Amino acid sequence: MTTTVQIYDTTLRDGTQAENFNLSVTDKIRISHKFDELGIDFIEGGWPGSNPLAVEFFKAMQSEPLKHAKLAAFGSTRLFANPADKDKNLQALLDAKTPVITIFGKSWDVHVHDALRIELDDNLLIIEESLAYLKPHVEHLFYDAEHFFDGFKKNSEYALATLGKAIDGGAETLVLCDTNGGMLPHEVQPIIERVQQFVAERKAEVDLGIHAHNDSETAVANSLIALSLGVKQVQGTMNGYGERCGNANLASIIPALALKMDCRCQAVTNIDQLYDTAMLVDELANLPHNKYQPYVGRSAFAHKGGIHVSAVKRNPLTYEHIEPEKVGNTRRILISDQAGKSNVLHKAKKFGIDLDPESPIASSIVAELKELENQGFQYEGAEASFELLMRRAVGTQPNYFTLKGFRALNSKRKMDRPPETEATIRLEVGGQEVHTAASGNGPVNALDKAMRKALTQFYPALEELVLVDYKVRVLSGEHGTGAKVRVLIESKDQYEQWGTVGVSLNIIEASWQALVDSINYKLMRDEQRHAKQG
Questions:
Q1: Which run of H or E residues covers position 133?
Q2: Is residue 229 part of a domain?
Q3: Which pTM was predicted?
């Protein structure tokens, strides 16, 4: 029987508690739209009562409509000393103006006594009153029963009593949390079944959810067991990021639901976008992607030599548990020149490029892509650069300008003043050479200004080009300050937003590559739009 499941993502809140995992407001907005495209049902954006960045994000998202996903604000039950209508945390949740609010409360008596320092009955009171106060103001109200499994094992009667008060307060879904991540799969089933019995005895019309942490390497397994028992909501993060050892990995849970458990949700329909979504999160967080990750790792469907390669060529099912294309990944035969062609053809179709699968051009693009990836290029967060690469290969990319040379100079004349930077550049446009100079906040900014100064007289639309984000990633640490770097630039105009990439041993050269691609993409898209209108 097909079961409908809700996917609740907390990458933007719980995920950002992971060590070295940081996202700007711009990053969060872009990821939210990507999650929306994938079909995530609920996106937890942050805790507005404790984090100014979350407040800024929720404010920005009020002008960023989502097509499917619903945004959730996260917070705690009220302080015992505050009435609900005077509690700053609850008011901050309402001020976020999200259709969903998720609040957590204490399920474990130890936490009530030692963390909140209140009586057990007082905790029950604030759970019910907090939810009841929020209920009239939101479309969906979820209750995260923090430390529920640990609390149940120590004092099951009290843990269930906290759920009862959440039901009385009007919670739509009770989310059972393995906050410390210590549960093993065989322990999950009897506890969930007891909770289901408790809910049935109360004749409560509430759903159950699961929120598992990965400290025992069982978060995905515990979540799937819960879902197999009829739990309707699963919470997790993309690529499993989270505090300590992380959260349940939605990049593993979603395909298991879609391809192995006959569950229905919007993300199942769009599961071929899973790989791109997982890669984008890593790229924007400026972290290396785990190539060995199930389903969405680059090695998840990689085969190298001998019996495996021979068998997979005859029948992929011999050494693959699913078809990689179903999750947007690709099969990689590491010794084969055919590796990656299906992905290239897929992208060509997406970009509107007519590419014959049997043409030498398709093979040359694959070969060039493999060589560039060996050099450190990654296109998951820089599709504009990849589209330009393909158009150059098929001969449909116009040459808007040609670089003749550039120079960037840094000088620090006074120790108490910032450095001075100037860039000069020579370009040729339509046979005419242009030589300009500009100052900036660092060499990349100066180069950007000099290039725009040179080109806007020919292409006035470049005035509306905005550089949204700039990231630098060191690709190998063994060479210290001489290591190769990858630069990712995010740009936008009034119509769209796009990413470009550059790689070099020289950070200025890598930045230049990404800047040139950004401008070329802007000019190409403008030309395409004018052609359609004309």
A1: helix 120-134
A2: yes
A3: 0.73
Task: Name the CA radius of gyration of the chain, rounded.
Answer: 26
CATH number, position 59: 3.20.20.70
CB-CB neighbours of 528 under 10 Å: 11
> pLDDT, tens digit, for every residue of 230-258?
999 999 999 999 999 999 999 999 999 99
Non-local CB neighbours of 246 within 8 Å, separated by 6+ positions: 18, 213, 214, 219, 237, 240
**52 and 84 fall within a common domain:** yes
Half-sphere exposure of 268 toward its Cβ, with a 13 Å CA cutoff? 16
CATH of the domain at 321: 4.10.430.20
Integer CA distances (angstroms), 20 to 109, 276, 468, 478, 490, in order: 33, 21, 22, 20, 21
Residue range of the domain that includes 154: 3-284
- 385-442 pLDDT, tens digit per residue, is 999 999 999 999 999 999 999 998 988 888 888 888 999 999 999 999 999 999 998 8
Nearest to 57 by CA among 78, 79, 33: 33
Helix (H, G, I), strand (E, B) or coil at 105: strand
